Amino acid sequence: MQPYELTVADAAEAVRTRRVSPVELVDSVLERIEQVQPRLGAYASVTADRARDAARRAADEIAGAGARGPLHGIPAGLKDLIDVAGTATSASSRVREGHRATADSTVAARLSAAGAVFVGKTHTHEFAYGLTTPQTANAWDRGRVAGGSSGGSAVAVAARAATFALGTDTGGSIRVPAALNGVVGLKPTYGLVPRHGVTALSWSLDHVGPITRTVEDAALVLGALAGHDPRDPASVAAPPAGHRPGPGTDLTGLRVGVPANYYFDHVDPHVEAAVRRAIARLEELGARLVDVEIPMARYIRATHWGLMVPEASAYHERTLRAVPDLYSADVRVLLEAGELMTAGDYLRAQRARTLVRQAWLDMAATVDVIAAPTVPMTAVDSGRTTVTWGDGTVESVSDAYVRLSAPANVTGVPALTVPVGLDPQGLPIGMQLMGRPFDEATVLRAGHAYERTGTARDPAPAV
To answer: Which of 173, 202, 313, 398 is catalytic?
Structure first.
């Protein structure tokens, strides 16, 4: 096994016991990036010299005082919305040409304090306003979409070109590409991970979280990220720390909500079958399945768009007027459309969100987690714009991908995607586990228990 193939937990143990040095680990990941980057395009920029310097410092620190934690010397990719002092934050847009961050974002600073080594910035759909990340190819099939907007981060992790990565999630942008590339993605509770120094899409919906190869790794990274920051108005005052799941798989007493509506409507049969098999596996591990009705489902899409579109347009108001031609056509039309929405529309969306959130919390009080598909279909061919369901309903690809993930953004609850198999074309399928606010521990416990059964251990993508 090459060092780049190690998970975060395994790499941390190898570094701690001096079987692998941070220099060897980082060099291995950088070599892997050189191999796969021409084919996949996961990275917007690679900071190889800076990473090697950081790896040497980490090696010296570990040789002296020992590892300061499980991320010390571990290579990471950061979505190109996340500021790192002295490096570009391009948001994969010509609008940001020549940009250099003057200070670290909170999450970058916390990862640096934990000893993580940044190997580069990963591609995003421009300003995170899309679900495909067209610059990047799917790690399992280069002719298919990577998913977005954290497509570069998910592909880098899937291709073993980062030991872990950070993404952002406004309507599914961590979970969608993670599911489409067969890796783990965690959207924490709203306010748990500060967003200071992270380019906004929609401030009332934006989250930052980890993309990893295992649930245990997601918990390790979350532990370094969580904590109050007064520079983010949404940051919670006293969040719980990330919880590392135990080794067991016993889920006795866990109540798993299975939606009777919404989440299995207009879903590919292979996706539904794989997710239902995974839910049955949770039951075999001791969980009790409970039928739940998703409340106010008909309002979720309108509420999500009613919040995101005007907030994004407000953020981009000045640059949209100054340099409109520098935006890609798909993003520009969304930003211009947002300027046509009235204050009344936005306020009604905020009110609807309050009602949806309360109804969701009332429903979720009867269960510990809700299990459902992450996305309704696997990765589509690049350039495909619509999907036609069995009843003749036509849906845009972006709408289809965001439909099942947006509820967790509107409500702010934690949501985890874990791989649960492959479809007949050999493309990954993800199951989404959603919990109560700030109860990441239970969500991670359920995902980890499922993962440890081995039923999700499919071969790595052949890249």
So the answer is: 173
